[in-house]
Structure formats: structure tokens, C-alpha cells
Amino acid sequence: MTLRSVYLAGPEVFLSNAGEIGVAKRALCGEFGFDGLYPGEDGGEVAPDAIYRRCIAQMRSADLIIANLTPFRGPSADVGTVFELGYMTASGKPTFAYTNDAAALLERTQRLDSRARFDNNRQCWTDCDGLMVEAFGLFDNLMLVYGLAAPVVARDVPSAERYTDLAGFRACLELARRLP
Q1: pTM higher than 0.90 for the full model?
Q2: For residues 77, 83, 87 and 90, what is the CA-based torsion angle, rounded to 10 degrees?
Q3: pLDDT tens-place string over residues 118-167
Q4: Which of 23, 26, 51, 77 sits most deeply, having the most CB atoms within 10 A of its CB?
Q5: What is the rounded average pLDDT of the residues 13-36?
Q6: How many domains does the structure of the chain reveal?
Q7: 43 has pLDDT over 60
Q8: Is residue 159 domain-shared with residue 70, that is, in the same domain?
Q9: Shared domain check, 155 and 69
């Protein structure tokens, strides 16, 4: 198999052990015959525009993306990861994703928002701001779900391991390896 590069998107870059996770993900990529491009390896860059340009360059050079869509700072996926997934989708590159919280978006919203309720007048679920919550039984926004090359790998892991458990990532590598 020809070595293909994989852009590794996810909120792990914000963790205190981001470097360790990047090393582990890149090692798993190697086991599956891929070269992992981890955006957390910034060489000490702190200027936001430099980080952005480096990430865009990595995505342009990558053949595909594996995105960690585990909820981050709310009931939904990390906004930066979602941008990267959209960028790769628009670039026509295969997109794979996993989440370590298999609950549907509505359930996640209800977990974090005690004022989420069913609005009988509008016949929909709403959050504390009165905004409709998608209640399709999907793990996140429908645009994420239907833009993927394969179904999302959804697993429930203990909250302490939510951003470090790599079983879903490994499953995505297996799916990606099957690409022609």
C-alpha cells in the first residue's frame, strides 16, 4: 500500500498532554501504513495566524482526515475540528470521524442544559435560549453526519478517558485502510 497522509483533527491539541497523544496517534497511523499529520506539533508557534497557515498547509498536503468529534466545551464537536472537517470535505478528500460520547445531540444538550424542553407550540425541542435542538437521533449536527466517507465510529468511554481513548481512532484507521 502506498503511504498516505492523514490529517489528525480534534480537541486533543488543547490538553495538557497534547504532545503525548499526538505521538500515540502518529504511531497508530504508522501501524496502519499512514503518515499522521498532527496539528499539535507546532514547533513552539503561538501566533494564531501562523498556526492557521500551518494547519491549512497540513490539510492541503494530507490525503484524508480523521476527526475526533467528541463533544468539547459543550454538547457538540470542537468548532476548529468541524472547520477542518468541512475544509477537507470541500477539498474532495475522504473524511472519517469518531466520537467517544455516543449519545445523540439532544441527549447531550439535555445533560448540559437543565432548561432544555419540548416546545409544544413549535413541536420541537429547544435549549435555554429557546433555539431549536436537532432531535434526529444523530450524534451531532446532521451536516457532520452526512458529510463523512463512512459512518461515524461512536463509542461511550468513561469521561476521564473521553479525549485520550484511541479505540475509535483505531477503528477509523481500519476503515481508511480499506480505501482504494
Answers
A1: yes
A2: 70
A3: 999 999 999 999 999 999 999 999 999 999 989 999 999 999 999 999 99
A4: 77
A5: 95
A6: 2
A7: no
A8: yes
A9: yes
Question: Is the pLDDT score of 44 beyond 80?
Answer: no
Burial readout 14-33 (b: 16 or more C-beta within 10 A, e: otherwise): eeeebeebbebbbebbeebe
The C-alpha cell at 86 is 468541512
Angstrom distances, CA of residue 145 to CA of 54, 138, 159, 179: 27, 7, 22, 19
Strands 117-119 and 124-126: what pairing? Answer: antiparallel
Q: Bridge partners of 126?
A: 117, 132
The answer for residues whose C-beta is within 8 angstroms of residue 94's C-beta and 6 or more apart is 63, 64, 65, 149, 176, 179
**SS3 category, 122:** coil
pLDDT of residue 1: 45
Count of H-run helices and E-run strands, the chain:
6, 7
Contact of 145 with 97, CB cutoff 8 Å: no
Domain range holding 150?
A: 4-102+141-177
Identify any residues that bridge with 167 across adjacent strands, giving them in sequence order: none
Q: In angstroms, rounded to a whole number, what is the distance separating the alpha carbons of residues 51 and 45?
A: 7
What is the phi/psi pair of residue 173, to 5°? -60, -40
